[in-house]
Amino acid sequence: MRVVIDTNVLISAIFWVGKPKAILNSARKGNITYLTSEPLLKELINVLITKEKPFQVTSKDANYIVKHLKEIAEIIPTKSRVSICKDDADNRVLECAIDGKADYIVTGDKHLLDIRVIKEIKILNTAEFLKI
Hints:
Elements lengths: L1 E4 L1 H9 L3 H10 L4 E4 L1 H12 L9 H14 E3 L12 H12 L4 E3 L3 H6 L1 E2 L2 E4 L1 H5 L2
Parallel strand pairs: 1-2, 1-4, 2-3, 4-6
Antiparallel strand pairs: 5-6
Helix pairs in contact: 1-2, 3-4
């Protein structure tokens, strides 16, 4: 299974135990292929180091996290451009999934979840994905 894991799910997987961590652990074990892109990794770093967010991770630690994610991920060079979502960052998730020929997008983002399917790629929350 080829899966794009959205930033909100990754943040939960990094900081807490639960369904998101189970999905990330599946990628670590090689049970799923975790797809990401440079724009998505850049967004993750920005979320981790933003002072308004509760994480306030140092740049050094954020880069360390991303380095380890890259070791288990397939980095997709994105060429597609979509503008379906109001939040442009959500469009980067869709582009990664399309260009990476993903089977699933796992997200907690309501706007992405409302789409449900794009180009045969199913968009699921963590609980729905873990049932598969």
